[in-house]
């Protein structure tokens, strides 16, 4: 399977498997069945889907799906004395709005840039390496991703001479495939991406021989103490959608040979700098 075919099939599959899309499509199918006078099947489908939609609307069930991924890796309790670079995976940019308004806009994953700025200050001589192209079928070959990243980093005060930009990759596998020629074969790199996306990213990096120390950001789940019935469908989808997508991605990448393990775990070699998996606290400001 070529990389291009894999990319297009993954986008088609996700259009059908996205929880938000799936709920709406099932309502459409149920309505069509009613119009075709297949009342029994339509009734069963609509009642089941209504209960499912009501559950997602009223309670953050996506936390149960995404939290195991977010807890898999933690930020190092003690950063290494020396690294060869800081890798930040694309995904924090809002490409459509950036192109629409000709302004560098951040999306939900914008924490990745804040973390990169923080680490760039700690390691003033380490290059900041951005990898990310468009994951949208409609917005291929715009060349805008690298320009958006560069503009954001410039606004954050990073010198252009520190930046290495790769904006051809369309998914995580291509991120590391395209980065390999730019990295030292035996180098050590801090890896910044969303916490839920870190297991798959680490698995791909290891498969391609890139030595990374995870630095997860952009957490989407709530602690058990803060979960409550609040009827916020959009907010609940912020955890459900990426969590469900990542579990599918982990499975597909493993069976297609892009990762060596289905759910990568922390490397023992980094045990001196790694902490136990983080647990969300009921009061994040406790002790401050």
From TrEMBL:
The chain crosses the membrane at residues 12-36, 43-62. This is DUF218 domain-containing protein. One of its GO terms (biological process) is Gram-negative-bacterium-type cell wall biogenesis. It holds the Pfam family DUF218. Residues 84-249 form the DUF218 domain. One of its GO terms (cellular component) is plasma membrane. It comes from Thiomicrospira cyclica (strain DSM 14477 / JCM 11371 / ALM1) (Thioalkalimicrobium cyclicum). Keywords: Membrane, Transmembrane, Transmembrane helix. The keyword Transmembrane helix applies. The keyword Transmembrane applies. Residues 269-288 are annotated as: Disordered.
């Amino acid at each position: 399977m070529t990389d291009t075919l894999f990319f297009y099939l993954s986008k088609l599959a996700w259009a059908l498997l996205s929880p938000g899309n799936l709920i709406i499509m099932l309502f459409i199918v149920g309505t069509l069945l009613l119009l075709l006078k297949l009342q029994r099947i339509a009734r069963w489908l609509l009642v089941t889907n209504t209960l499912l939609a009501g559950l997602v609307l009223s309670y953050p069930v996506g936390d149960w799906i995404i939290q195991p991924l977010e807890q898999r890796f933690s930020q190092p309790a003690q950063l290494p004395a020396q690294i060869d670079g800081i890798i930040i995976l694309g995904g924090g940019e809002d490409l459509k709005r950036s192109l629409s308004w000709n302004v560098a806009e951040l999306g939900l994953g914008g924490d990745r840039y804040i973390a990169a700025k923080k680490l760039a200050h700690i390691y003033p001589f380490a290059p900041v390496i951005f990898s990310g192209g468009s994951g949208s079928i409609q917005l291929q070959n715009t060349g805008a991703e690298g320009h958006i990243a560069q503009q954001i980093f410039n606004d954050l005060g990073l010198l252009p001479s520190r930046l290495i930009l790769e904006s051809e990759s369309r998914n995580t596998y291509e991120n590391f495939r395209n980065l390999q020629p730019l990295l030292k074969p035996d180098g050590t790199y801090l890896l910044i991406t969303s916490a839920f996306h870190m297991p798959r990213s680490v698995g791909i990096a290891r498969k391609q021989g890139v030595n990374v120390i995870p630095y997860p950001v952009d957490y989407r789940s709530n602690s058990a103490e803060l979960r409550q019935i609040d009827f916020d469908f959009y907010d609940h989808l912020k955890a459900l959608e990426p969590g469900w997508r990542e579990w599918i991605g982990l499975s597909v990448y493993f069976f297609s040979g892009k990762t060596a393990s289905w759910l990568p775990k922390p490397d023992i070699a980094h045990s001196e700098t790694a902490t136990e998996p983080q647990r969300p606290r009921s009061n994040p400001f406790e002790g401050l």
